[in-house]
Design a protein that fits this description.
Elements lengths: L2 E2 L5 E2 L45 E3 L6 E3 L23 H9 L21 E7 L1 H5 L14 E5 L3 E5 L11 E2 L9 E7 L4 E5 L6 E4 L15 E4 L4 E4 L3 E7 L6
Parallel strand pairs: 7-8
Antiparallel strand pairs: 1-2, 3-4, 5-6, 5-14, 7-9, 9-10, 10-12, 11-13, 13-14
């Protein structure tokens, strides 16, 4: 019984060709190797199309994600459908350098130290004087005398009077509950060494007497500055006596 070999020779042998020696039934040739190692060719399609992939989608051969057929790159892993190449990872050193770069911050200027407070030079003693009260014929009862109220005097011009929030009157030397003192009674000013008193046309006048002298009986002229010395007595209202003196080291 004769047969033909793959080259068309007639051979009496059934295993090898009598003429060319080729096998009569050669094994099927393996499929061609694609030029791109990652291109494995189309996957076998099950009946009805790929499972989970619609007609308008395709499957990424690298991560098997479903992507639109028109996409050139896989949105999940970055696979390039045209070249079959994965994107090269970014060098770790570059990432570290980018993370290390920060926006420069503008240095804040140092906070200047607070200026030291100037030492206190003068104070005013506000006394309740029963002897002065006895000469004024006031209808108000005189408060019990005691130690004076010491008021710091830091300004060159100081108002003597009684506080009135409604009239925005805030005297530096407040005579409190002595209703014989006008709201704006007198102004005491200094040039740093000498002191002057000016009556502001008060109802009961302003009086000055040296320490140890009898009580004054004549008020100073209103609207005129009258000089007085440290330690002199300034009388106002029904019972108030003021003494301007230098602050002690403890008061400073």
């Amino acid at each position: 019984m004769s047969a033909r070999c793959p080259d068309g020779h007639v051979s009496e042998s059934t295993d090898y060709c009598d003429i060319c020696g080729q096998p009569m039934n050669p094994a099927p040739a393996p499929p061609p190797i694609p030029s791109n190692p990652l291109d494995l060719g189309p996957a076998p399609t099950p009946p009805g199309g790929p499972v989970g992939v619609s007609a308008n989608d395709k499957e990424c051969p690298n991560c098997h994600s479903e992507v639109p057929t028109d996409d050139l790159f896989c949105e999940v892993c970055g696979y390039d459908f045209t070249t079959g190449v994965m994107p090269s990872p970014e060098p770790a050193d570059t990432v570290a350098m980018e993370e290390a770069v920060e926006e420069p911050t503008t240095p804040r200027p140092p906070t200047p130290p607070a200026a030291p407070a100037e030492p206190l030079t003068w104070v005013a003693e506000v006394w309740i004087d029963p002897d002065w009260y006895a000469t004024q014929e006031s209808d108000d009862p005189c408060p019990s005398p005691g130690m004076p109220q010491v008021v710091p005097v830091r300004e060159q011009s100081n108002l003597v009077g009684r506080k009135s929030s409604s009239r925005n009157i805030h005297p530096q030397i407040d005579c409190g509950a002595d209703h014989g003192v006008s709201r704006r009674h007198a102004q005491l000013t200094t040039d740093g060494q000498r002191w002057f008193a000016e009556d502001l046309q008060s109802s009961n006048g302003t009086y000055i007497a040296p320490a140890g002298a009898p009580l004054p009986t004549t008020s100073i002229p209103a609207g005129q500055r009258t000089e007085f010395r440290e330690g002199d007595r300034v009388y106002v209202g029904a019972w108030t006596r003021l003494v301007i003196r230098r602050a002690t080291p403890d008061e400073q």
